[in-house]
Amino acid sequence: MSSSHFPQCSPYVRRNAQFGRTLSRRLVGSSAQEAAGRDRLSALSDDLLHRILGPLDARLAAGQCSLLSRRWRHVWATMPRVTLLGHASERFGDSLLLLRDDASKLRVLTLHSANTDHFAHQRRWLRHVASRSIRVLDITLGTAYHFELPDCVFNCATLEEITVSVLAVRQVVAPKSVCLPLLKKLRLHYMQLSDPSVADKLSSGCPAVEELDLSRCSLGVFRISSDTVKTLSVTACDYSEIDVSAPNVVSLKLSVAGRVKLDAMPSLLSAWVSVSCDAIKPHAADRHDFLDALCNAQHLELLRFGSLLKDMMDKPVTEGPTFCKLKTLYLGEWLVVDFYRPFAYFLNRAPNLATLSLDQWKLYEENNGKISGPAYFRGKSTEKLNLPSVLSSDLEILRLRISKGDDAGEFSTLRRMLKEKTKPKEMEVVWF
């Protein structure tokens, strides 16, 4: 299109337009240069800088990050949260912890130990922070050598949270004494607590603990007694016997690996119970006593429960507890036929059940699709399925996640029975 189609501008208008564009470019360039020269990071508050630097390795916070801002060159030394990885040198750790101004309170220390050459000064660091009002200790031991935790870790009047994790060989925990009056959370992973006195010391020395998490630990004969614990987790642990008296537990996670006895838990809302293959043995009725403790739960997740329940109910002392508060039930089993016993059991004892899930996937996922365990619990079902339902109303949701394996033929029987007994408003079936 030719320029004749547009109105012609006077030379005066064109000169003013050009001047405006030039002035605009100069102003924009000036603002950009001013912004580039201004250190905006230095304008951040100390609290915000501490939040940014705290999760980082202290060497990174003190070194490379200090190049980002003039104020960052010194703010790392006053951080209330410090992370020291295994390669932190003795000189650096001493400067950061031992020479720290007492006015700059250290509240959280994360320590990763992997080098035996550093054990001596790392223990010295722990002794120092334990005497300086530390609140949270997160210790990870990534070594096959024994790292002896100083007793002061278990005798710190200000600690509110302790996490000790081991990545290699189980570490023995045998403190001479335990005095943690403010401790709220205790998490121990891959530790050896087989000395029965350790459990007694932890129970008496942690009067305020609310969360107790034991994972992959060796416990031997272990007793947990606490009126304050609200969240209790004992998973993937080795033990011959475990006895729990914790009436105020709200959330429970338990791997059944030996004899289990749970006292009443009237405050229980949710529970996850997984039965290991080694715990599924004939005549288990006299080895486990925990069904009564689960009867107040509103949400239950039970893995490999069918065969253990069968053994427990072969010679029942009583008819069994009623699960009047149960709203959601998840059952995870190897085979479709293994759902029959727990399904029938809870159908007749959980009148307010609203959501039922039967799932084979989680156990397949745990074992890479390979069925394992005693051969006696893989047989065909001999259950009589003509059991009356006592559900006060129809199920809201019924979910099935079933394998296309050798027992797929049992699925049609199970599905027909479930639709007949529960009359679900919503039904979801997933094959894998």
Write the layout of secondary structure elements.
Elements: H1 11-37, H2 46-53, H3 58-62, H4 72-75, E1 81-84, H5 90-98, E2 108-113, H6 119-130, E3 136-141, E4 161-166, E5 171-172, E6 185-189, E7 191-192, H7 196-205, E8 211-215, E9 218-225, E10 231-235, E11 238-245, E12 251-256, E13 259-262, E14 270-275, E15 288-289, H8 291-294, E16 299-303, H9 306-314, E17 328-332, H10 340-347, E18 355-359, H11 361-366, E19 397-402, H12 409-422, E20 426-431
Parallel strand pairs: 1-2, 2-3, 3-4, 4-6, 5-7, 6-8, 8-10, 9-11, 10-12, 11-13, 12-14, 13-15, 14-16, 16-17, 17-18, 18-19, 19-20
Question: How many β-strand runs?
Answer: 20
Distance between the termini: 65 Å
Strand content: 15-25%
Instruction: Tell me, briefly, the overall form.
Output: elongated
Discrete helix count: 12
Name the strands of the widest sheet in spatial order: 1-2-3-4-6-8-10-12-14-16-17-18-19-20
Rg: 31 Å
What is the averaged pLDDT score? Answer: 79
Unreliable residue runs: 1-17, 26-35, 373-384
Structural class: alpha/beta
Main β-sheet, in a few words? 14 strands, parallel
Describe the structure.
- The protein has 432 residues and is α/β, with parallel strands linked by helices.
- It contains twelve helices and 20 strands.
- It has helices spanning 11-37, 46-53, 58-62, 72-75, 90-98, 119-130, 196-205, 291-294, 306-314, 340-347, 361-366, 409-422, and strands at 81-84, 108-113, 136-141, 161-166, 171-172, 185-189, 191-192, 211-215, 218-225, 231-235, 238-245, 251-256, 259-262, 270-275, 288-289, 299-303, 328-332, 355-359, 397-402, 426-431.
- A 14-stranded parallel sheet has the order 1-2-3-4-6-8-10-12-14-16-17-18-19-20. Strands 9-11-13-15 form a four-stranded parallel sheet. A two-stranded parallel sheet has the order 5-7.
- α12 (409-422) links the parallel β19 (397-402) and β20.
- α5 packs parallel to α6 (119-130).
- It is elongated and about 70 Å long.
- The chain starts with 10 loop residues before the first helix and ends with a strand.
- Residues 1-17, 26-35 and 373-384 have low confidence and may be disordered.
